[in-house]
Write a structure and sequence with these properties.
6-stranded mixed beta sheet; single chain; disordered C terminus; Nuclear Transport Factor 2, Chain: A; alpha+beta; globular; two-stranded antiparallel ribbon
Length: 150
């Protein structure tokens, strides 16, 4: 809900909400992110890695994408937003992860997230990232076949 109580948020309000969500992600707290996902939320990981596809639905994102990452990375998983640009229903976030695999390998990827918002909810996210780092660090470890078939 926006300041006027209409449910329709402008670019500035969308940007502020996404900045608040990423402030928590920087601390390893994903609860506000998940709490602001619409039920039909979708997350697209670009590229041609084992991770690359569209995860459709809040439950699928949490179970398959976040669940698989949680199996590979030590907690807390952090993503730090550095630049936020908003235009209408879209907020673009330039970010960097600061993470380590459970095998002790650094996984500090760089990201550009394009997020579509509606009524104060995250509707869809497209993630652009260093796919070579994904393949090198997570690709050999990823057991997504098992995670995706469950």
């Amino acid at each position: 809900m926006n300041e006027e109580g209409t449910g329709i948020m402008n670019a500035s309000e969308n940007k502020k909400l996404v900045q608040e969500i990423f402030a928590e992600l920087a601390k390893g707290n994903a609860r506000p992110f998940v709490g602001h996902m619409a039920n039909e939320f979708s997350w697209t990981v670009t590229g041609t890695t084992k991770w690359s596809r569209t995860y459709a639905g809040k439950e699928v994102v949490v179970r398959e994408l976040f669940g698989s990452l949680g199996e590979l990375l030590t907690a807390p998983i952090t993503t730090i937003g550095h630049r936020f640009i908003a235009d209408g229903d879209y907020v673009v976030v330039e970010a960097r992860g600061k993470n380590t695999t459970k095998d002790g390998v650094s996984y500090n990827n760089t990201y550009c997230f394009v997020i579509r918002m509606a009524d104060g909810k995250l509707q869809e996210l497209t993630e652009y990232l260093d796919t070579q780092m994904v393949a090198t660090v997570l690709g050999a470890q990823a057991n997504l076949g098992a995670a995706l078939s469950s």
